[in-house]
Amino acid sequence: MGFSTTHLIIFLLIIIVIFGTKKLRNIGSDLGGAVKGFKDGMKDGAEKAAETPAAAPVQQVGAAAAPAKETIDVEAKTRT
What we know:
Elements lengths: L4 H15 L1 H31 L22 H6 L1
């Protein structure tokens, strides 16, 4: 149960009657400008990512990492 070609043509004609060609032209140009801006932003983001140096090495947390000796349990202090 899809749309046939005649359904799409009727649908487009109704949209043109409701909005008018001038409004549709403005919507199309605004949409085109937004897509162009998005593509330019993506291109700039990729260039900036390539320019930035590698991130600092990640410190691994595991059995070798000891907890701080001066850790204070705040809730235990307020309960007494």
